[in-house]
Amino acid sequence: MKTPTQALHEFVEWLLLPALAAVLPWRFYFRVLRRLSTREWLLREEVARAVRGHQTFYGRPPDTLWRQRHRLTILVDRADAFLSATRGDRWLDRHVERDGEWPAGAFLIVTFHYGNGLWAMRDLRRNGHPTSMVSIRFSADTFAGRAMPYRSVRFRFREVARAGGAPVIYTGGSVPVIRTSLEAGHCVLGLIDVPPGQAGGSVRVRFLDREMRLPGGMLRIAAEVGVPVVAFTLDFDWNSGRRMLRIRPLPAASIDGQAAFLAAMLNRALAENAPAWQLWSCAPEFMAPSSGAA
Asked: Among positive and negative, which fits the CA dihedral 44, 19, 98, 222?
């Protein structure tokens, strides 16, 4: 059973602070989050897990600035659903800088648990590309009975569907749905940096200076359907909060070649902005051998 302090932290971290994004001007709100991100008590468990993952890779814990920036990434990510739900497309023009273009027609979009990607779905929809995101399915059991985080995630996924203009595709029988969506001329977005045990079939890549595996299932579907693949990252400037959306088309290469391109893209992003990767807490799982076929 939660203590009163734990209940208060859940309320502040999952509802109060994120919901303030709906009523405060973005630049002022971001300054508030940046100041709060220096508080070690905030998101203590989440940051501690990320620190342990970082230490597994590098043999040392990250410094104070790294922890602050990782905390800020999580705070912005939780706020984005409230922000997207209450802002029009003019917000994109004012606060998101785009480098690259979306192609015409249907395509597969690949991204990472890096930065905060929700506004890319808004940009896709605005440019005539309603997009379904692929995700694992969450339930109350996933959160061990913690109602506040569960409700927050449910709200976020409702906003993901609204922002993308298409329903979320949940894993577990998702392959025919992804294939049908692409064949029908719709776009599908998936996150490829998931631990190998969470996705069927994997491809060997060089990632974080180690030999690891990334799932290749969606890349195979795109190749079979005959649609292009585009990757993006979306992060923000630590000082101003201005977003940067970088869109990169994948080469028409083998699945191995495309996976290597994606791994190199994420490697570059982490070299520039490592605290923005939200999967540091899962980093040791990427080092585990995969049972999937290469």
From this structure: positive
Q: How far apart are CA 213 and CA 195, in angstroms?
A: 8
Tokens 């468990």 belong to 45
* Residue whose C-alpha is closest to residue 32's, from 47, 54, 17, 51: 17
87 Cα distance to chain centroid: 20
Local structure of residue 281 (DSSP, 8 states): G
Q: Which whole number is the average pLDDT over 215-241?
A: 96
E strands of the chain, at which residues?
96-99, 108-111, 131-135, 169-170, 187-191, 202-207, 210-215, 229-236, 243-249
Res 225 pLDDT > 90 = yes
Q: What is the reported pLDDT for 128?
A: 96
pLDDT in tens, 269-291: 999 999 999 999 988 777 645 43
- How many other C-beta atoms can be found within 10 angstroms of the C-beta atom of residue 97? 12
Strands 243-249 and 96-99: parallel
What is the reported pLDDT for 290? 41
Q: Using alpha carbons only, what angle is made at residue 89 by residues 222 and 152, rounded to the nearest 5 degrees?
A: 75
Alpha-carbon distances, residue 23 vs 92, 93, 267 (angstroms)? 17, 19, 36
From the DSSP assignment, how many helices (H) and strands (E) are in the chain? Answer: 12, 9
pLDDT by residue (tens digit) across 190-224? 999 987 666 666 888 988 888 888 888 999 999 99
Question: From CA 225, how far away is CA 182, in angstroms rounded?
Answer: 7
Quote the tokens at residue 270: 């982490």
**Cβ neighbour number for residue 237 with a 10 Å cutoff:** 12
Residue 51 phi/psi, 5° resolution? -60, -40
pLDDT in tens, 38-77: 999 999 999 999 999 999 888 899 999 999 999 999 999 9
